[in-house]
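Q: Convert this sequence to structure tokens.
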Amino acid sequence: MSHFPELPRAFERPRTGAVDILVVAGEHSGDQHAAEVVRALLRDNPSLRIAAFGGPELRAAGAQLLLDMTRFSAVGLVEVLSAYPFYRRLFRRMTEWTLAWRPRLVLLVDYPGMNLRLAEALRSAGLSRKGGGGTTVLQYVSPQIWAWKPRRRFAMARCLDGVGAIFPFEPGCYADTGLPARFVGHPFARSGHVAPVVHDPSGPVLLLPGSRPKPVRRIFPSLLEGFARHRAADPSRRAVVLHTGGEVHAELYRICAEAGDLAKGIDLRPVSEGVVAASAALVSSGTMSLTVALAGIPGAVVYRAHPLTWFLGRRLISGRVSHLGMANLLLRREAWPELLQLECSASRLARRLGECLSDPAAARQAAADALELRALLSAQPGSSPAEWVREHLAP
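A:
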């Protein structure tokens, strides 16, 4: 368990002896989203006392960081199971700290597997309002109950005081629970957000097979071959594969090495190196597919899973979602073609790249769709995440 940090014997005392807000963000993305909320809250009221189980972004935003949770968030199932005693001890210590210092408000950010368990523990201990205490407990970023585990909403209503949703259709999912849910805007649509990609008709093609090793192994070979087929007619064309390093980078490198000449023109690049200007994109369904859509980059959403996984997954979400790509779900149409399973073939991918790169209408449509998406995902006046939290802090 050397990749896990040693837990301190005791988490720090609050700097001022009291806590207004405790933020819990267990992943890198949650750390970033929470940091924006904390910055906005402290701009409005610098005297707020904010502590966090989060990461470096929250510390930089002005929160007292009690433990860097992001140091052990990106682990696989095997590692999590083998480290179960560590996580159980961590959860107990987090709960004990919260019960000892009794913050006015607990802001849980994404990461529902842990955060909703913590909310239930605070209710059972009588600290939260739902348990008869005085601490407000909020969940920022709703779990995707519209696709998975829809009955989870009733458990959430039992232990939460509110949900800040980042998609405009999500509040309606809680209408039958009595749990207040508000659309507070998507972090990618906020003013000042810097996207990792932008559209440039003269730029390289983006190949984005995902951020985890298993999907990369299934998806990237098809993307690579599809790009190679397209490049056969245009040898000057290049592609960029963005990655987060570590095991994913190693997997990408291995696949490129085994592909030999098929991998010509492909550059592997860490996301941390800055913004990439791209002409078209083949992107795995997930967060990056929405990022690409908001940037107005034409392309396709791709996905491949084990046939049994695909069969079971489609049965679970059947009747709940009409598309896999988030942009398509929001627009209620297939603005970005979805090439899934057998359709995620080299020939189909090469054809789609050709359409995007040879027809100016594809780029114009992608730009128009991006504007529509941005309007859908922008917070209404008075309903930003910080304003939503501030309302719950009021006496």
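Residues 213-232 form the longest helix (20 residues).
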